[in-house]
Write a structure and sequence with these properties.
Structural class of chain A: alpha/beta
Mean pLDDT of chain B: 92
Structural class of chain B: mainly alpha
Number of domains of chain A: 2
Distance between the termini of chain B: 21 Å
Radius of gyration of chain B: 18 Å
Order of helices and strands of chain B: HHHHHHHHH
Strand order of the largest sheet of chain A: 5-6-7-3-8-9
Number of domains of chain B: 1
Helix content of chain B: over 70%
Order of helices and strands of chain A: EEEHEEHHHEHEHEEHH
CATH class of the largest domain in chain A: Alpha Beta
Mean pLDDT of chain A: 93
Largest sheet of chain B: none
Largest interface: A-B, 33 and 28 residues
Number of strands of chain A: 9
Oligomer: heterodimer
Shape of chain A: globular
Shape of chain B: globular
Strand content of chain B: under 5%
Bound molecules: adenosine-5'-triphosphate, magnesium ion
CATH topology of the largest domain in chain A: Rossmann fold
Number of helices of chain B: 9
Distance between the termini of chain A: 31 Å
CATH superfamily of the largest domain in chain A: P-loop containing nucleotide triphosphate hydrolases
């Protein structure tokens, strides 16, 4: 379980995240929605203690991220921005990550297989296609077999088959009882993947409801999203 | 902690800049030593000439490659975004930083342990006299500390171009004798790269007041240790405070 309490992030005069509170529960996929610049990526970076909040806090099963003993075995994350060295081989990227958390090297090969990169582990990251790089990021998130997953726009750059694969993967992970928190822009995709929605705009919480209730009250996910965020576009 | 440091060693081992910069360090140092010795052979009867100079001056140029290695170990984390994966895996920034410093220091110490004697031999000197061995030990410590110092600076600055644009010109001028120039020596002798010059026999005869510096051979390395601690402290404070 992931608890966000009064989370706030200011960059100078910009309030990227504005006293945000919500809880992400295990056993389901929670979709994190909001227009461009709503504060989704910033919120996710703060969940990992990468960015320091200017207020509030995040707890993972009651513990702050920085106090987790082997964090990759507790929380797996895919961030929006690249986090692999272009000149390093895919296998080696996962290898050093595994070493930091005492994860056996054999797990590296198995997650590469799991995400469909079994054949390209020896390639350098810069020689991977956009979709392959995204799969490598997902492999890194799954490396420690974590009960909590945070994925920032995981379908970015994936082909229809890849999108379908992610959907199955996320639903499967949730069915195993894991906490799956995933941001996306693709309403149609979210309506097929998510069980629950957290919608934000300008850093503020707009909705925290089940997909079924959201669709029931707005007609469709897309209609509901546009009416909530007033179709404002990027700020 | 051991697992964090071995992960850092894996990072260093798995990018191509590591073998390139380290090979450049050895080749430039030893190659220049060989050439310089050929050039200076006839000058040996000059007043104040110290034959150790042919061996140790080239190290002050070769060290630029070692400094590039130390800088890239940090700045590549930021330019590639790897820093986010690193800190998500090791959220305790103090431990992350210690592991990074330990790994870079171990590699720098290991490679310098080879480069220094190879360079001395390339200058056709025997590794036999106590004087030469002391200078070698000093050079080994000096080079390792300079690399660690760079890690501290790079962690404060984060960008390859800024770190190298700041350090390399100073190192290059240093190799040309910046710390020996009479008018400004009072100050320049204390620059980090100059602190190893007495122990490496590059600062001129120290019993001659025209050359004598305000610190001893090993005192100079002590000063470099202080520079290094200051740079690491600065790097750590920046790492802790700023968003990744
Ligand atoms: N490092 C930063 N410095 C200054 N402002 C920032 C920084 N990071 C984010 N912001 C600002 O914070 C706000 C939220 O950005 P964020 O990237 O979290 O949005 P997002 O919901 O992920 O958007 P998108 O859907 O486009 O990915 C934006 O106004 C952005 O410009
Ligand atoms: Mg984003």
């Amino acid at each position: 379980m992931l608890e966000v309490r009064d989370l706030e992030k200011r960059y100078g005069r910009t309030v990227a995240v504005d006293r945000l509170s919500f809880t992400v529960r295990p056993g389901m996929v929670t979709g994190f929605l909001g227009p461009n610049g709503a504060g989704k990526s910033t919120t996710m970076r703060m969940m990992l203690d990468l960015d320091h909040p200017t207020g509030g806090q995040v707890r993972i099963d009651g513990v702050r991220y920085r106090d987790l003993r082997r964090p990759l075995t507790k929380v797996g994350a895919l961030l929006e921005a690249k986090s692999t060295h272009a000149g390093r081989r895919a296998y080696d990227h996962l290898l050093w990550l595994a070493q930091t958390n005492g994860i056996p090297a054999s797990r590296v090969s198995s997650v590469l297989e799991l995400v469909g990169l079994g054949g390209v582990g020896r390639r350098r990251a810069k020689a991977l296609s956009l979709g392959m790089a995204q799969r490598l990021g997902i492999a890194a998130a799954l490396l420690g077999d974590p009960p909590v997953l945070l994925l920032d726009e995981p379908v970015n750059g994936l082909d229809p088959e890849g999108v379908h694969w992610i959907r199955g993967l996320l639903r499967g992970l949730a069915a195993e009882g894991r906490t799956v928190f995933v941001s996306s822009h693709l309403m149609s995709e979210m309506s097929l993947t998510a069980d629950h929605l957290v919608v934000i705009d300008r850093g503020r919480l707009l909705a925290d409801v089940s997909l079924a209730d959201f669709v029931a009250s707005h007609g469709s996910l897309e209609a509901g999203f546009l009416s909530l965020t007033a179709g404002g576009g990027a700020r | 902690m051991i697992s964090f440091a071995s992960a850092e060693l894996t990072k260093l081992r798995t990018v191509r800049s590591t073998p390139w910069t380290l090979a450049a360090f050895v080749v430039v140092s030893a190659g220049l030593a060989f050439l310089l010795e050929l050039t200076l052979r006839n000058a040996q009867r000059m007043e104040g000439y110290d034959p150790l100079m042919a061996a140790f001056l080239p190290l002050t140029l070769g060290q630029m490659a070692l400094v590039v290695f130390g800088a890239m170990a940090v700045t590549s984390e930021y330019s590639s975004g790897t820093i986010r994966a690193s800190l998500a895996a090791v959220p305790d920034r103090r431990r992350f930083f210690l592991a990074k410093v330990a790994a870079v220091a171990a590699v720098a110490a290991g490679v310098s342990l080879v480069t220094v004697p190879v360079t001395v031999v390339a200058a056709r000197m025997r590794l036999s006299s106590a004087e030469v061995l002391e200078a070698c030990a000093g050079a080994w410590i000096y080079l390792t500390l300079m690399c660690v110092f760079t890690v501290g600076v790079a962690t404060m600055v984060r960008h390859t171009a800024l770190v190298l644009g700041g350090l390399l010109p100073v190192l290059f001028l240093g190799s040309q004798g910046l710390g020996n120039v009479p008018a400004i020596r009072k100050v320049t002798q204390f620059l980090p790269d100059q602190t190893g010059w007495v122990v490496m026999h590059l600062a001129g005869p120290q019993d001659d007041p025209r050359w004598a510096r305000d610190y001893s051979a090993w005192g100079g390395l002590g000063l470099l240790a202080l520079w290094t601690v200051a740079a690491l402290l600065g790097g750590y404070l920046v790492l802790r405070r700023r968003d990744a």
